[in-house]
Specification:
- By secondary structure, this protein is of the alpha/beta class.
- It has one domain: Rossmann fold (3-Layer(aba) Sandwich), CATH 3.40.50.
- 37% of the residues lie in helices and 21% in strands.
- The protein contains 7 helices and 7 strands, in the order E-H-E-E-E-H-E-E-H-E-H-H-H-H.
- It has a 7-stranded mixed sheet with strand order 2-3-4-1-5-7-6, sandwiched between helices.
């Protein structure tokens, strides 16, 4: 079973913030594939089903971002899911708004939720889909990631959420190498995907 983790913060006050794009991608996958996120456990909301012929667990930690690894560590131990069978979806201030980047390993890049997961699992070899949210001009990253997108950014981020969900599906269907070659560019047109 593949564990597909969306990072974010629980609670209505965080809905729609930059830090919650991981939640939004997993929620979109749950809608696309009719996998309700109705189960509670491991300090998370989750649902199990099938995407691209593969059994998956869609997983939203409810620990708040900085402790995401506690929930991911618990579910991975229970279901014996190794790190390489995970896909973590997260926001990234080091990418422009709307750009996505797939990687199979690497550092957290300062993203606290991913950092918590890497610490809990004891490895940097945790595959992830990074969704660009841009960088604040004033350097206040903490306030920035908890802010909402500007009106002109909303179409870009909505498209990125769709493309990130497409990328997860393509990883499951065709593997990481194919998906990385397809999505690790600033923009991918619909023609290029067909």
């Amino acid at each position: 079973m593949k564990l597909i983790v969306g990072l974010g913060n629980p609670g209505r006050e965080y809905a729609g913030t930059r830090h919650n794009v991981g939640f939004e991608v997993v929620t979109l996958l749950s809608r696309r594939h009719n996998i309700p996120l109705g189960e509670r456990g491991f300090r998370a909301l989750y649902g199990r089903g099938t995407i691209a012929g593969q059994p998956v667990c869609l997983f939203l930690p409810m620990t708040y971002m900085n402790l995401s690894g506690e929930a991911v560590g618990a579910v991975s131990r229970f279901y014996r899911i190794p790190p390489e069978e995970m896909i973590v979806i997260l926001d990234d201030v080091n990418l422009p708004v709307g750009q996505i980047r797939l990687r199979t390993q690497g550092s957290s890049g300062g993203q606290k939720g991913l950092e918590s997961i890497l610490q809990q699992l004891g490895t940097e070899a945790v595959p992830r889909v990074r969704v660009g949210i841009g960088r604040p001009s004033n350097g206040d990253v903490v306030s920035y990631v908890l802010s909402r997108f500007k009106k002109e950014e909303e179409p870009l981020i909505q498209e990125a959420i769709e493309r990130a969900a497409d990328a997860v599906e393509d990883v499951l269907r065709e593997g990481w190498n194919v998906a990385m070659s397809r999505y690790n560019r600033p923009r991918v047109t619909p023609e290029a995907r067909s």
